[in-house]
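Lecture 7 notes: from sequence to structure.

We start with a single chain of 715 residues. Read the sequence below before looking at the structure.
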Amino acid sequence: MKKINCLLTICLSVFFTTVYCQVVYVRYDNRSPQASYAAGIVRKALLEKKYKLSADGEYSIQLITNRSQGAEAYAIKRNDKQLTVTGGDDRGMLYGALSVAEDLRNGVPLQKITASNAKPHYGLRAIKFDLPWDTYRHSYALDQHQQTCSDTAYWKAFLDMMAANRFNALSLWNLHPYVYMIRAKNFPEATPFNETELNKWRKLFTSIFRMAKERCIDTYLIPFNIFVSPEFAQAHHVALDNLEHHFFVNGDTAEIIKRYTRESVTQVLKEYPDLTGFGLTLGEGMAGMTPQQREDWMKETIIEGMRLAGRKTKLVHRIPFSSTTGSLDVTSIETEKLTRKAIEEEGNMDFIEGPVWADLKYNWSHAHSTPKLVKVHGGKLYDTYFKPVPTTYKITWTARNEDFFCLRWGVPGFVRDHIAANSQPYTGGYFIGSETYIPAKDYFTAISGPVNWKYAFERQWLFYKIWGRLLYDPATPDAVFQNEFINRYGPAAAPLLEASALAGQTPLRLASSFDFTWDFSLYSEGFLALNTKTKTVEYISVNRQIDQPPLDTDYVSIKDFVASPGSFPKNKITPLTLAEMMESDCNKALQLISNISAKGNNTLMYEIADIKTWANLGLYFAAKTRGAVALQQYRINGGEENKKAAVGYLERSLGYWDTVISITRPIYKDMPLVHFTEQNGNRSKENDQLRFHWEKLRADVAKDIEIARTATKEH
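Now the structure, written as tokens:
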């Protein structure tokens, strides 16, 4: 009868869900929260595949640690009917358990799981997360996440995602976080909450840090400086010029602010023992101070507060982007030398657990451009931090995403190229995240039908999986990501990864061909950029595309190409080469998904729709680029055939934009963007003009055609 039931189950199982009539015993140290979490992952995967769990099981999976394995590394070995997962520490054991669970979910029978091992490529694989209260930027686009981020269920889901994808650190950024976490013993007036309200905040942060620790995730609190609460400012008559917390303001270095900051750091570390570390940010709220004064202030406040806490703490030292007394200025060798000296001193302090993570922004605010390092925040990066190779700190790169919030994105090859370019001995890892987007509330989805996500980050599952898994092991094959598509949607979904990788080149190539600086200077998803004259974010017109220099020096601008045709080496990407690349990749992406049916599956429908949208944006970009070349050729050389070609290509680009509208209008709401809602301090929920949708830009896209039609030859 047992055999009959087993056979029946096999017959009823759906695609590659195979049932094995085995009883399994998962052995682990149940006194350890980390081991218990790891075991829970394995047990859940076993139950999903219809294995039975029992202490007298015929097959056993053992989870153990052995330091000789190496930090965060693991090995999976089998011996007859026992599978042993050995981690070099709790984190390595967890990753080994996740590997076993992944094999099971991919349909590998327990007895077919093969021996394997892995070790981390980087020591830090972090998420940059801006908390939605007292935000760096003031915008309804960020305020809207407050309720979601106040729910521990959200953080449980987010931390589960991080662990599954091998992220090992969560950094929480906030202008002035202390008042949400403590009532300062000597400055109780600083906290605006009553005891009931403050206890809710305490419970939230305690839960976040505890759940992170269970999942082997370090936590860093990264405040901006110098800020105090309005209540503190008014009580002590300091910092009265910044009660609304604008971030580029003069630094108030009053002694009472130093004392309050120092004591707050100490108290936070004592009241939250699961908090791993702190971060330093030198710039915001510190205008009027020299680089040395900023470093001295940090040493007297945050660093000294860490020392007084009486325990080991980890440290992130954000490398400053200003070499002057301005909050936003240029880099210099002198500032690099000063900063290196300060970081090395911190790395030798016995209360700081090294290495210190010395962090820089990769290609300023838009890492999703070229994998080559072109600039950092402030401009040029010299080699002071790398030569000689540091021993007490590691360089980390913040890969900011200010370019796509709505559309799903996933290009494994781009991330691998990023890692290959940044694997020097002095490199410690990456921070992945945004400053104008919080992955919490889903404010995108327009349809009322069922989908398999609740939170915004769950929509971008491929983005996090690619970055996290490849930062841990760049040799992770594409099959890992393809299998996830298959597990979610069935075998027919296998082409989605390749299609995503092809269509996902669209924002990367735009950002590589269009130079930028800070957050608002480019928003690739919307083909928007900052107008430096009006200080507003606008559609990138055909004229702007012609005039804008590229970020990546491998690219040739339209203006330079038309001025000197045929003078560029073959390895250069000319505008017409760029158009050919976009057309080839985007058409192939559309072909790959053409036969995938999403009938009855709204979640799959969104996956396909986003690939279609990126592909049509790429085709629009290609046609517009061809039109821009023809338009510039007409202006410089004349010839009505050039004007006619420009108009034709730009009409074609409008057609692709209309296709984007037809895809996205029914399924996506108008979306609030910080790029709009922060302007002039406007936090309005109601002003529809402050929301983004591709449909809202149609008139601007059509205007490109009129620009070409009315163009005249330059004299």
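Confidence is low (pLDDT under 50) at residues 1-19, 680-686. Keep this in mind for problem set 3.
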